[in-house]
Write a structure and sequence with these properties.
The protein is of the alpha/beta class and 264 residues long. The protein is 37% helix and 15% strand. The protein starts with 17 loop residues before the first helix and ends with a strand.
Length: 264
């Protein structure tokens, strides 16, 4: 990875990145030694982290397939991370080659790798931007997306890296306000709901590791996650652990909530 020529020179390879750690959990190769060291720390505390990452990724695949089946052909993936097998454009364009996808992440390696993969794909692009700045993101996304037609806004495993002080609820609402009726919002979000005392201790240790990365974690409750969908029509089965959202296989309970809602 360190020898790839397209990696931006501004990347600090000595500080762990949550996007590159997630890539490591998913079995990817676009991570540095600092990322792997931090990820292995997490694995020692919580050996199920790779399973959680995989379940979160499976949720994304099921959601995209479901929305494509409903006729959605435009997606904006906020906090998209580093592209790995089974990305949004691959899933959506398999069933609808003309589907349009905009990936958004502030991590330079994620964006550089995404644009390298998408060089020959006229209907998909990646933007380096912070999802906490909706106005800037939306201005750039207009080059690819038609704002007069429904868009699926995907915020997968990203909002738990946005503290309350940065108003994650306002950001999500601003994105949805930009798109017409019939648009969708899909979110996954880490939680400590239902953890045993021992599991809470382990979770606190994991959060301590993430405080030394480029993004700390802010877990939220079920009620907190439900609030992101205020005023929208939440699809069945509601806000549930990601492994319980229209599953195609059995998995143990994952401490990540997931849901999809339609803008009326």
């Amino acid at each position: 990875m360190e020898e790839l020529k397209w990696v931006p020179s501004t990347v600090d390879v000595t500080r762990p990145s949550v996007a590159r750690m997630y890539d490591y959990y998913l079995g990817g190769s676009h991570n540095f030694e600092a990322d792997r060291a931090a990820a292995k720390q997490v694995e020692q505390i919580f050996p199920g982290i790779a399973q959680s990452a995989g379940a979160n990724r499976s949720f994304l695949r099921r959601v995209v397939r479901h929305l494509v089946a409903l006729g959605v052909d435009q997606f904006i993936d906020l906090g998209s991370g580093i592209p790995t097998v089974g990305n949004v454009h691959e899933i959506a364009q398999q069933d609808n080659p003309s589907a349009r996808v905009v990936y958004v992440d502030f991590e330079p390696v994620a964006v550089a790798h995404a644009n390298a993969l998408l060089a020959d794909n006229p209907n998909a692009t990646a933007l380096q931007a912070d999802l906490r700045m909706p106005a800037k993101v939306l201005r750039s996304a207009r080059d690819v997306l038609d704002f007069d037609r429904p868009v699926a806004v995907l915020i997968i495993a990203a909002l738990h890296f946005v503290p309350d002080s940065d108003d994650p609820y306002g950001a999500a609402a601003e994105y949805m306000a930009a798109f017409p009726s019939g648009s969708y919002l899909a979110i996954t979000h880490a939680t400590h709901d239902g953890l045993t005392p021992q599991e809470k201790t382990e979770a606190a240790q994991v959060m301590a590791v993430y405080r030394n990365t480029d993004n700390a974690i802010s877990v939220r409750t079920h009620a907190d996650v439900v609030r992101f969908f205020d005023g929208m029509e939440v699809l069945e089965p509601g806000v549930v652990p990601v492994n319980e959202w229209r599953p195609d296989s059995y998995e143990d309970r994952i401490s990540i909530y997931g849901a999809v809602a339609r803008k009326p």
